[in-house]
Amino acid sequence: MNEIQVILLGIILLAGSVAFFFFTDLVPKQITSTEMNVIVSLGVGVLIFVVDKRQSHYLDEIIQAQHKMTQEIHKMLTEEIRLIHEMRRENNKGDDHGTNVR
Questions:
Q1: Fewer CB within 10 A of the terminal residue: the chain, N end or C end?
Q2: Rounded to whole angstroms, how far apart are CA atoms 74 and 67?
């Protein structure tokens, strides 16, 4: 099940339970603020956990893509440096024989 579907299911169940307990007298008339704080904290904690898991996966994909791109750039730069050294050797070789005309 998708994380978004889990969150939506949780919200629907929460709204359904609130409506059920509002219309029935199964819950005490007075809920202390401490109990409400615990309920809200648990709900927010679960939401943060699910969203964090999703973001962690997304960030991992971004990091992998950047790593691959960095490796490709490194290969290109290494090849350019090799070509520059080769051209420099050819130039120095031409200067030594006097065939290089300026």
A1: C
A2: 10
